Amino acid sequence: MSETVMTGVYLSNHPVILDKMALLREKNTPPREFRRLLHEISLLLGYEAMRDLPGIKRTIETPLTVTEAEVLAVKPLFVPILRAGIGMVEAMLQLVPDGGVGHIGLYRDHDTLLPVEYYVKLPKDLRGMHAFMLDPMLATGGSAAYTAEILMERGVDQITMISLVSAPPGINRLKVSCPEVRIFTAALDPELNDRGYIVPGLGDAGDRLYGTEGWS
Ligand code: PRP
Ligand code: URA
Q1: Chain center to CA of 106
Q2: 112 is an active site residue
Q3: pTM above 0.70, yes or no
Q4: For residue 172, which ligand has an atom nearest its CA?
Q5: Tell me: the pLDDT tens digits for 49-66?
Q6: How many Cβ atoms from other residues are within 10 Å of residue 148's Cβ?
Q7: Which of 88, 102, 166, 170 is the most exposed place for a label (fewest CB within 10 A)?
Q8: Helix, strand or coil for residue 167?
């Protein structure tokens, strides 16, 4: 259940997601709860984001007869942006256990707010693949755009971003790098503060996920 808020941007308005998002944003929610909520919301968003994955007919045998059934034609590639995207991977693999996983390690420089790369590990050949970028936060969009550019250079066919909280500058930045991207999000927050944090947002997703300091 999501509404199209602009071309290629799908905002979930399901009451169960909204309820979980309220708890996730709460500043007193501890890392244990934060991780669980992030997982559950990712599962619900991922389910929606994968609704157009192509299927292919297979002949299968039930205990009663032989019949045709549809299975996924191509397994998706899940691309968590470290650190916080790691908290979303398990949900995706619960949905598609045979999906691939490629890791992109980036952190945002505190002064420039630009992404700094420290780790990239992807399958060799990405041609024809549908990549799902995973990051709870789409703020300036620098990290997502950087990741999309790596994936496009390596030949991915289609990119979908799954983020929990998105802000307009991030959406616009990502669309500049990857005009065809689809973005599935659980919240569209209005602005960034002067340190590039989404407001109202939820603070620093990586710090809240892993209990490290500095998000308030
Ligand atoms: C956070 C978040 C995104 C990025 C979003 O990561 O998880 O990757 O910031 O901001 P942007 O849209 O302005 O690029 P961060 O750089 O704090 O790294 P971390 O997950 O290791 O804490
Ligand atoms: N990264 C985060 O973790 N939170 C924000 O609000 C912005 C970037």
Answers
A1: 15
A2: yes
A3: yes
A4: 1
A5: 999 999 999 999 999 999
A6: 26
A7: 102
A8: coil
157: DSSP letter: S
Residue nearest to atom 3 of ligand 2 (CA): 204
The per-residue pLDDT for 6 is 87
Annotated active-site residue 36? The verdict is no
CA distance linking residue 124 with residue 6, whole number of Å? 33
Q: Is 39 exposed, middle or buried (0-12, 13-18, 19+ CB in 10 A)?
A: middle
- Measured from the alpha carbon of residue 84, the closest ligand is 1
Q: Which one from 108, 135, 160, 208 is the annotated catalytic residue?
A: 108
Cα dihedral 77, 82, 88, 92, rounded to 10, equals 10
pLDDT digits (tens, 9 = 90+) for 138-179: 999 999 999 999 999 999 999 999 999 999 999 999 999 999
How is residue 100 written in tokens? 């691939």
